[in-house]
């Protein structure tokens, strides 16, 4: 695919040269990657009739003296044949083009993008010399390069200078006016050297929100929005690719349930520890109660079972003489001898 892109750049440069707009071969720069990937073209007449396909559709900018012009172009390789793409139209996750070979139009194609299992897939139709195909392309993710990101940030700062205030502050006095061209150049230089700086990333994301026709921006938004579906910058992307954001919300819900379960477990653990301490305290109280009851039984037992008193001895006799003559007297005498 790198060779394909190089061929596109040479073709686009040659196109300008042929138009006579400049004499020296310009240096084309990729501004937008619309479609880039490989897959299959399956005949609409027979599922067993298919060909491997490689495709690249881009928008390139070519500097002409002090001016810069953009052109949309591309190539398609199928069945060992290579076709140039002209009359290209790149929009938000869709593209159309005419196929040319040896300067003659021989077909057309139309594709649209969707996301499946976090991968961009292009599908559509292809017609070559009257033969119709269903086209399926698995997009090749190309990470944005630091220089490309910096250029996009510079462009965003030109269109919306207020969004670049934080970067300007970070650069210092040399960039006291984020709306000036000199400051934009300084911001570009800074972000190229610090592509992961949060301020640079935030401005690049702002740029991508309005440039979803670029595969690099779609990939950036996909990676961000799948974890932040509620973010303001994800509204448009989530509308175009709801499955990505629904999965993200489901993931967030699952994480929330997981956290809730963990909190329940921790609460249960704390409750068990409290109950254990309560049981230990209750055990101590029961031991004290048992000890007091034991002491009370001992005291009460002594009151119910007093020391045994030995039986008394009984004697009897007859009083002799006096007023009680001949009366019988019975007396009980405690001998303490048990007899």
Radius of gyration: 49 Å
The ordered H/E elements are HEEEEEEEEHHHHHHHEE
The tally of strands reads 10
Could you give the distance between the termini? 130 Å
How are the strands ordered across the major sheet?
1-2-3-4-5-6-7-8
Tell me what the structure shows.
- The structure is a single chain.
- The chain is an alpha+beta fold and 339 residues long.
- It is built from 8 helices and 10 strands.
- The strands form 2 sheets. Strands 1-2-3-4-5-6-7-8 form an 8-stranded antiparallel β-barrel.
- α2 runs antiparallel to α4, α2 crosses α5 (198-209) and α5 (198-209) crosses α6.
- The chain is elongated.
How are the secondary structure elements laid out?
Elements: H1 2-18, E1 28-43, E2 50-64, E3 67-78, E4 81-91, E5 94-101, E6 104-116, E7 119-128, E8 131-139, H2 146-159, H3 165-171, H4 181-193, H5 198-209, H6 215-225, H7 235-240, H8 242-304, E9 313-318, E10 328-333
Helix pairs in contact: 2-4, 2-5, 5-6
């Amino acid at each position: 695919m790198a060779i394909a892109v190089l061929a596109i750049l040479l073709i686009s440069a040659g196109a300008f040269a042929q138009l006579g707009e400049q004499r020296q071969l310009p240096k084309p720069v990729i501004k937008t990657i619309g479609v880039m990937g490989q897959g299959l073209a399956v005949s609409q007449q027979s599922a067993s009739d298919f060909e491997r396909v490689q495709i690249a559709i881009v928008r390139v900018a070519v500097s002409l003296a002090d001016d810069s012009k953009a052109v949309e172009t591309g190539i398609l390789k199928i069945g060992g044949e290579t076709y140039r793409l002209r009359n290209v139209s790149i929009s938000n996750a869709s593209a159309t083009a005419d196929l040319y070979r040896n300067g003659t139009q021989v077909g057309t194609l139309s594709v649209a993008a969707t996301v499946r299992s976090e991968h961009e897939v292009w599908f559509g139709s292809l017609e070559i010399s009257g033969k119709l195909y269903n086209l399926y392309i698995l997009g090749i993710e190309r990470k944005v390069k630091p220089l490309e990101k910096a250029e996009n940030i510079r462009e965003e700062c030109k269109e919306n200078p207020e969004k670049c205030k934080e970067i300007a502050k970070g650069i210092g006095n040399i960039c006291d006016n984020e709306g000036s061209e000199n400051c934009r150049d300084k911001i570009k230089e800074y972000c190229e050297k610090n592509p992961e700086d949060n301020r640079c990333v935030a401005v690049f994301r702002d740029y991508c929100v309005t440039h979803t026709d670029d595969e690099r921006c779609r990939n950036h938004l996909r990676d961000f929005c799948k974890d932040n579906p509620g973010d303001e910058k994800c509204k448009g992307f989530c509308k175009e690719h709801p499955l990505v954001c629904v999965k993200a919300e489901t993931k967030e819900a699952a994480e929330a349930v997981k956290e809730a379960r963990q909190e329940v477990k921790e609460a249960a653990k704390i409750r068990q520890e409290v109950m254990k301490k309560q049981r230990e305290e209750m055990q101590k109280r029961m031991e004290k109660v048992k000890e007091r009851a034991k002491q009370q039984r001992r005291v009460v037992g002594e009151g119910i079972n007093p020391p045994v008193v030995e039986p008394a001895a009984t004697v009897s006799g007859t009083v002799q003489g006096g007023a009680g003559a001949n009366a019988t007297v019975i007396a009980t005498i405690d001998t303490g001898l048990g007899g």
